[in-house]
Design goal:
iron, binds 2-oxoglutaric acid, binds fe (ii) ion, Iron_ascorbate_oxido_reductase, dioxygenase, alpha+beta, metal ion binding
Length: 314
């Protein structure tokens, strides 16, 4: 199971898309997205609409945040798991992260910013909001392509309105030994779609369907797009939600930023009837993502090989 592989993730170029679903380029990219998500549940996306200043500024903002004293960061301790500050976990000592709910909404980000910088930090909140807005455009393009390729157009608005955007920023210290050390344990994401952007320190690994681990080495221009369990359930298993982990080497710190489209509390995730037939019997009973997360963070949920299956598998 633990073997390395020379498999490479597909790289999909979104740079030449007009805002024009139905054009030839749109359909071509859509078919690449579908294929990559069936096979890997993940791909690298080239998306040049995000200006270089914002790409650069985001890591400045992230470093500034993690450089705050621990007590300050802990002021934003999480109400929901992984939504606020997380760090100093004995099982993943190199890892810390901060979640920013509704990261595309300026007032929400500003009020969270004031917790950390009572005197305000407009530069920080502006950077977070612009980055999140730009990346959420890629999230919307990808999800629209998914909905179309599954033939679920009539659910497009419902699907798009069913989520909020959570931005999580992550820091992994370098282990500063010659050994490779665990940065973040293997898991599947529980949300709909995750889009990751990293500084140039690699470490993210993705498990292919054959069990081998692919080292991701995204270029400075690319984003890693990944499917979570909620979309896997909605598509009734047609798209893969991959296990992934972070393994750290060397001295340099790795910074990454993830935009997570997260189903709203109270929204029931239910595979549309179009997804169910003799070849594709229903995999999961309808569920509320927030309640599912509640189960995931219990001991039984953490132990289960697939928390979603244990929670609501048919
Ligand atoms: O840091 C990364 O690249 C991955 C983070 C991750 O998998 C997660 O936050 O769910
Ligand atoms: Fe993840």
């Amino acid at each position: 199971m633990g073997s390395e592989t020379s498999l490479k993730l597909p790289i999909i170029d979104f740079s030449n898309l007009g805002q024009n679903p139905g054009a030839a380029e749109w359909d071509l990219v859509k078919s690449q997205v579908r294929k990559a998500l069936e096979e890997y549940g993940c791909f690298e996306a080239l998306f040049d609409k995000i200006p270089a200043e914002i790409r650069k500024a985001i890591f400045g903002a992230v470093e500034e945040l993690f450089d705050l004293p621990l007590q300050t960061k802990m002021l934003n301790a999480s109400k929901k798991p992984y939504h606020g500050y997380v760090g100093q976990y004995p099982q993943v000592p190199l890892f810390e992260s901060m979640g920013i709910d509704d990261a595309t909404i300026a007032e929400e980000v500003e009020s969270m910013t004031r917790i950390l910088w009572p005197q305000g930090n407009q530069n920080f909140s502006n950077t977070i909001v612009s980055f999140s807005e730009q990346v959420s455009e890629l999230d919307q393009i990808v999800r629209r392509m998914i909905v179309e390729s599954l033939g679920l157009e009539k659910y497009l608005d419902e699907h798009m309105n069913s989520t909020n955007h959570l931005l999580r920023v992550m820091k992994y210290k370098g282990p500063e030994t010659t050994e490779t050390k665990l940065g973040l344990s293997s898991h599947t994401d529980k949300n709909m779609v995750t889009i990751l952007y990293q500084n140039q320190v690699d470490g993210l690994e993705l498990q292919a369907k054959d069990g081998s681990w692919i080292d991701l080495k995204p270029t400075p221009d690319s984003f890693v797009v990944m499917i979570g369990d909620s979309l896997y359930a909605w598509a009734n298993g047609r798209l893969h939600s991959p296990y992934h982990r972070v393994m750290m080497r060397g001295n340099a710190a790795r910074y990454s930023v993830g935009l997570f489209s997260v189903p709203k509390a109270g929204y029931i995730i239910k595979a549309p009837e179009e997804m169910i037939d003799e070849e594709h019997p229903l995999l999961f009973k309808p569920f509320d993502h927030v309640q599912f997360l509640g189960f995931y963070y219990t001991e039984a949920g953490q132990r289960a090989p697939s928390a979603l299956k244990s929670y609501c598998g048919v």
